[in-house]
Automatic annotation (TrEMBL):
The lineage of its organism: Bacteria, Pseudomonadati, Pseudomonadota, Alphaproteobacteria, Rhodobacterales. Keywords: Transferase. This is Aminoglycoside phosphotransferase family protein. Residues 9-198 form the Aminoglycoside phosphotransferase domain. One of its GO terms (molecular function) is transferase activity. It comes from Shimia litoralis. SUPFAM superfamilies: Protein kinase-like (PK-like) (SSF56112).
Amino acid sequence: MPHMQGAIWTRLSGGRTNASWCVQPQHNEPPVVVKLYLGPAPNPMFPNDPVAEAQLLTQLEDLEFAPKLLVHMQTKHGACNVYSHIPGEIWQSGISEVAELMEKIHQQKAPSGLRMVANGSVQVEAHTRAILSNCDLDSTLPFDEFSPEIHVAPTENTVLLHGDIVPGNIIRNTMGLYLIDWQCPAVGDVCEDISNFLSPAMQLLYRGAPLQTCEVTEFWFAVGNCMLAERYKKLAPWYHRRMAAYCLWQSQNGKAEYDAALRLELEYLQRSLKL
């Protein structure tokens, strides 16, 4: 942990839940990130757990795709994690590398005590309904009209999940790709992480545009697992429906940028039902 006296604090942009700073200490010590948690997020999709993030970063400290935790502490302003700063740019392209990064994560042993996420279409739909129960629905939103019919059983092959693999949490530099913001890890279906990354809404919000068809094809080629690809294809309508519900919830809670994301996710939902 470097000395903070006289350090230069720069507020980091991009985070939608917590307050983070890049802190440059004196005496040429390496910069660190100070993340102040602003309390439990009422977020129905992405929890905000500083203890879980500290636990994961500790477990992953010998690997090269996550920040190194320096200290976890409680302050009068809230919980705080301090970890190594990873320089670079937010991910924009190079989709096969993301597939490889996901595989590295999903091969790691999950620590005990992590939350379990929805597994299989019945649980995903139950999650969707729970989100919609906190929204005001009107006849212009075709949630009932665009309802999947093909159910998918839960998988027994559950793995460690990052829980929020979106472009804003992937950093690229000359050494490769890194994942930051580990505050909502989980155990569950590999398809859960994949769905968040491939989501047109999340790509629009963090990258400005959904992935092109050729990029999605390249992603699955890099994954190299036909059975997983087929499972995801069957689950995709359920995931699109849930993400659309999440965008609606965000929009109705003052996040106007989710309006376009909602429309896009509903468009992809309708498209996926025809495949």
